[in-house]
């Protein structure tokens, strides 16, 4: 949805938009934002890393065969013209310093060097605000044909100079390599706490490719593909709350004369609490992130997630934490045309750890988090958010014995652990019998189960009945007291709900755990005598694992390792409930997940409700966060062949038609029924009392002209079987105000509303421009700055709970 400042900019300049924009669809939210001083004054330079790559005969990937036709009022800004424009730091152009070139407010200018389009609108006689128009205002046609663009170091735009960045090529792959040598990340910006992280190792990006197409009316497809391999050792000692993102590499693929597709790779760290961690980790992933769909007048009318990923991860960790922490790699990819960001995709993968220290007991768990989100124009959605548990343990401090319970699993009914004994300042494995004391509730008598450690101090007891609330303690012969109790767990620590679709009746998300080596060992049909030792040697007992560097793996070996790791994903299969925050009855379904993802159909969600998913695993209740239901996407009101004519005493507004597109996010049929469209303007100059409309939906509009208030049928849009359109037909309105000059600033405040009834709920959107404040450059700039951080729901995804439908009553006084 629009940010408030974008809506404000568009609507402040509404009278100017109406002039000179005849014979085409006119978007009332024409402006996407302000062109900043840094963008306006940017000088494009080739990055030194790119220069080095080019000298080594690497070729920068770029898009080819792109065609377009500019709108009649678009002009290419010459170098001489731009040199005459002086923008201040607050983003204002001073008219007195333009040296003979005064931008025409009715024209859009393209700066090919800076790769942005702008339209200069007068604030007063001395100042101009530089605004960014929408694509539909810039182009009559645009076609980026389907193609894949391979990125190389010659595409580099940014790097971290402290990270060695190189490229290499073998028979199968092209790699971009990032090497860390005692790379220190200072966590305290003042440098007083001594908190830092030291990294050693490497990250490799394999075959980065951007696949894209974008057209005015024939759809879009944007995908980022890459492989990544990581081998890192990290040492940290932290008592702090912080979040950091460090750029490793930024690159772009040029869309000649129009813009670019950008990609950036970051190290991402988030932590809160006390952490002591030494970790060695190796992981790799193959990734495809993308979305595709239909378009109409550049606007997406359907959205299909075409993302997929696969990965593997190995690690050895020694950690003590009373905190939550994440460390990993973030990838961002986006497409820009003349500065407008069409698509923005983020993918983050890495190690997530949580732990606590209480009652002489240290507990911790570590797992792999993979999260991806996309934002297409004003619509933001989660593609996936998965957590795969890899390691969990509890370690009581106990009278000369070091007892670690690696896993007390209620899902698999087993207990695995390790016992070491203190001898002369060192510890050695305890070999011998032990007793497990298992309580099913705090007041129950414990069940007694015998077990035996092997020569490495490892024990694995199977067929131990465990559920929610069960506790396990260990008793060693010759010691009077049992160890502190450890609680039973399950391998599913979370369930994610990505969407709850009221139109299609679909819920989607993920719930998955990881098959730890203890789980695989406990559930194997045959368990050899040395299996526990082998599991310990694989790194689960805390010993240092030896990893083959993933960057040295061949593609076939990497694919094999990834396949093996993904086969260890523990998939939940069973009942699920969807709980409504409004108090309605819960909805039931069954999950049969694929690689941890699920989709449940035939659910009756209500528009405007908040929903969460819930599963019950052996008494453990796992719930998602609340998610607002979605389902239909509404464009804002478009107007075709809009004209304003008149004299110094009156104005007539007319149009061939105004219309709204409605499309389902996931449904298989186009929306039907009737839709209400309302549009008008609250003018700054006073209207005659007899012509002022009283607008119930916008009571603060006290000097309003209503252009139309019509109810129209939704009909299928030709060529788009899932999209419906509601049209007003021809309309006109005459009122007693003079035509507005393009050279005069007027704070006229448009309003509009779209209302559609679905499942007895009114959904759609409405907005009314906020007051402008002072008509000065500083007053407007302060207002824009103050609103940039505000979050308000956008036109494309706004769903209102049941309330009275917006109505407009026109009263002639």
Care to describe what's here?
With 813 residues, this protein is mainly β. 9% of the residues lie in helices and 52% in strands. It contains ten helices and 52 strands. The protein has a 17-stranded antiparallel sheet that branches. Strands 1, 41, 42, 45, 48 and 49 form a six-stranded antiparallel sheet that branches. A hairpin with a 2-residue loop joins strand 38 (610-617) and strand 39 (620-623). The longest helix has 12 residues, at 555-566. The radius of gyration is 31 Å and the shape is globular. Mean pLDDT is 77; it is low at 1-29, 535-549 and 774-813.
Quote the average pLDDT.
77
Tell me the overall shape.
Answer: globular
Give the low-confidence spans.
1-29, 535-549, 774-813
User: What gyration radius follows from the Cα positions, in whole Å?
Assistant: 31 Å
Total number of beta strands: 52
What amount of the residues lies in strands? Answer: over 45%
What is the end-to-end distance? Answer: 37 Å
Helix content range: under 10%
Helix count, DSSP H or I runs of 4 or more residues: 10
Summing up helix and strand content along with how strands pair, one would put the structural category as mainly beta
Largest sheet: 17 strands, antiparallel
């Amino acid at each position: 949805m629009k940010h408030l400042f974008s809506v404000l900019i568009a609507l402040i300049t509404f009278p100017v938009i109406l002039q000179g924009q005849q014979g085409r669809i006119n978007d009332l939210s024409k402006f996407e934002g302000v062109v900043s001083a840094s963008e306006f004054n940017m000088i494009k330079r080739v990055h030194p890393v790119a220069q080095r790559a080019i000298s080594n005969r690497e070729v920068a990937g770029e898009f080819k065969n792109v065609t377009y036709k500019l709108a009649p009022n678009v002009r290419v800004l010459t170098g001489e013209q731009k040199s005459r424009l002086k923008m201040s730091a607050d983003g204002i152009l001073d008219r007195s310093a333009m040296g003979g070139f005064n931008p025409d407010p009715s024209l859009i200018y393209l700066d090919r060097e800076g790769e942005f389009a702008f339209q200069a609108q007068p604030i007063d006689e001395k100042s101009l605000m530089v605004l960014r128009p929408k694509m539909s205002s810039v182009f009559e046609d645009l076609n980026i044909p389907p193609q894949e663009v391979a990125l190389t170091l010659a595409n580099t735009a940014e790097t971290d100079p402290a990270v060695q960045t190189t490229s290499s090529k073998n028979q199968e792959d092209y790699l971009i390599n990032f090497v860390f040598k005692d790379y220190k990340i200072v966590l305290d910006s003042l440098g007083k706490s001594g908190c830092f992280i030291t990294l050693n190792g490497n990250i490799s990006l394999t075959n980065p490719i951007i696949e894209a197409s974008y057209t005015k009316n024939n759809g879009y497809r944007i995908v980022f593909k890459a492989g990544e391999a990581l081998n890192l050792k990290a040492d940290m000692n932290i008592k702090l709350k912080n979040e950091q993102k460090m750029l490793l590499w930024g690159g772009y693929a040029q869309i000649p004369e129009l813009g670019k597709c950008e990609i950036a790779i970051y190290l991402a760290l988030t932590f809160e609490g006390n952490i002591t961690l030494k970790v060695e980790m190796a992981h790799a992933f193959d990734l495809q992130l993308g979305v595709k769909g239909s378009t109409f007048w550049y606007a997406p009318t359907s959205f299909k997630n075409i993302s997929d990923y696969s990965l593997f991860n190995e690690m050895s960790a020694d950690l003590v934490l009373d905190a939550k922490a994440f460390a990993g790699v973030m990838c961002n990819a986006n497409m820009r045309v003349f500065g407008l960001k069409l698509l923005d995709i983020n993918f983050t993968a890495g190690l997530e750890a949580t732990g606590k220290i209480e009652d002489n007991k240290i507990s911790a768990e570590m797992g792999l988090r993979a999260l991806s989100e996309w934002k297409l124009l004003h619509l933001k959605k989660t593609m996936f958010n998965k957590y795969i548990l890899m390691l969990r343990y509890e370690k009581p401090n106990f009278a000369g014995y070091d007892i670690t319970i690696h896993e007390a699993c209620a899902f698999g009914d087993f207990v695995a652990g390790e016992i070491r004994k203190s001898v002369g300042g060192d510890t050695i494995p305890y070999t011998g019998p032990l007793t497990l004391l298992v309580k099913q509730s705090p007041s129950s008598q414990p069940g007694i189960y015998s077990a035996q450690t092997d020569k490495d101090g490892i024990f694995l007891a199977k067929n131990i009945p465990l559920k929610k609330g069960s506790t396990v303690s260990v008793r060693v012969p010759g010691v009077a007291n049992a160890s502190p109790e450890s609680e039973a767990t399950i391998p599913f620590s979370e369930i994610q709900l990505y969407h709850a679709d009221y139109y299609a009746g679909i819920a989607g998300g993920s719930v998955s755990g990881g098959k730890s080596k203890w789980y695989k060992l406990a559930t194997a049909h045959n368990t050899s005598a040395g299996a526990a030792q082998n599991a310990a040697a694989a790194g689960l007992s805390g010993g240092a694992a030896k990893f083959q560097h993933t960057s040295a793996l061949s593609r076939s070996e990497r694919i094999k390792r990834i396949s093996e790791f993904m086969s260890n994903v523990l998939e939940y299969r069973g009942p699920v409930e969807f709980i409504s925050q409004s108090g309605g009855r819960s909805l039931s379904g069954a999950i049969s997940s694929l690689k941890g993802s699920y989709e449940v159909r035939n659910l009756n969600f209500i528009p405007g409700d908040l929903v969460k998913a819930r599963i019950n695993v052996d008494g453990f209740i796992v719930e998602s966060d609340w998610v607002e239901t979605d389902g239909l996407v509404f464009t804002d009101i478009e107007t075709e062949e809009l004209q304003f004519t008149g004299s110094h005493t009156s104005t007539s507004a007319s149009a061939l038609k105004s219309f709204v597109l409605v499309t389902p996010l996931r449904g298989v049929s186009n929306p039907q029924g009737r839709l209400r469209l309302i549009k008008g303007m609250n003018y700054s100059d006073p209207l005659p009392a007899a012509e002022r409309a009283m607008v119930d939906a916008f009571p603060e509009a006290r000097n309003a002209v209503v252009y139309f208030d019509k109810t129209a049928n939704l009909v299928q849009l030709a060529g788009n079987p899932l999209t419906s359109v509601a049209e007003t037909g021809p309309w006109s309105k005459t009122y007693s105000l003079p035509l507005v000059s393009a050279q005069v600033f007027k704070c006229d405040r448009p309003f509009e509303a779209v209302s559609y009834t679905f499942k007895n709920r009114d959904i759609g959107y409405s907005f009314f421009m906020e007051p402008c404040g002072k008509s000065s450059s500083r007053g407007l700039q302060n207002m824009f700055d103050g609103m940039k951080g505000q979050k308000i729901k956008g036109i494309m995804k706004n769903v209102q709970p049941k309330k009275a439908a917006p109505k407009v009553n026109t009263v002639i006084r």
